[in-house]
Amino acid sequence: MVDVSIYEVGPRDGLQNIQEETPTTDKIDLINRLYHAGLQDIEITSFVHPKLVPNMADAEEVFTATKDIGNFGVLVPNQRGFDRAKAVGAEKLNVFFSASEMFNQANLGKNMYDIVAELDSMLKDTDPKNVRAYISCAFGAPNEKTDEKKLLEAMQAAQHMADTVVLCDTIGTAHPSSIYRTLELSRHIDSDIALHLHHMKNKKDNMFPNIQSALDWGITQFDASIGGLGGCPFVPGSGSNLSTNDMVRYLHKNNYETGLDIWELDSIANLYATEQIVPHTPIRLRVRNKLEEIFSKTPVGSKW
What we know:
By secondary structure, the chain is α/β, with parallel strands linked by helices. It has one domain: TIM Barrel (Alpha-Beta Barrel), CATH 3.20.20. The chain contains twelve helices and ten strands.
């Protein structure tokens, strides 16, 4: 029986901003390996404009090649992405918006209310059990304090479109007390709550108090990325994605069951980190879009 479930985001969030394009065959192989290590819930690609994120240009090919392995999730940023995903048979859809209006404007060019209206219309015939709604900047935004009223509004909007609401530590500044405070805001949200956390740069051990705080509160779902691949490329110092390997090792050490093979996960991480995919720290990752333009003008101390 599984106590804590891991939603693997390595094939999408881990790879999308790597400077070198990852061959489609390598992505398919990675997804296969992750699945056979016990990870059944995997975000495998993003149906985003290929000019904005070239490493996701093969979304149709990746999904089609792996759809018979498992019922995997995909990211759909807008109606065009939704239509592409549905055309190849994708059922599990991930959508996103932010509790920070600056982040919404920079990333999607709209305010939260307009984004939510578009998502509601887009998902009107989609069963919420097949949707994960990600709220970026749930624990702080670049150069902004968390507006708890706005965050609660974001959670309330998300619960109507998705059975799972994922709260994201986009800028890597979450700590146990902020996790507890944010989770308390979600107490009356009907959807399941999951967390997407970051390791602080070069300080992976500091994630464990955050994880334990969430576990103690009652969280049983976490996003993670094999080997810690990925992170928020637009915020220097925001850290890497929570490592699947580190997370599973910590959980097993503390007597939580995950149903995952840590030895196989380590083997996958070593293979892809050393031979095929060289993870870059977020401070060196750059995507030439409005987010980088805005956030690079004003230095910040430290997701998606």
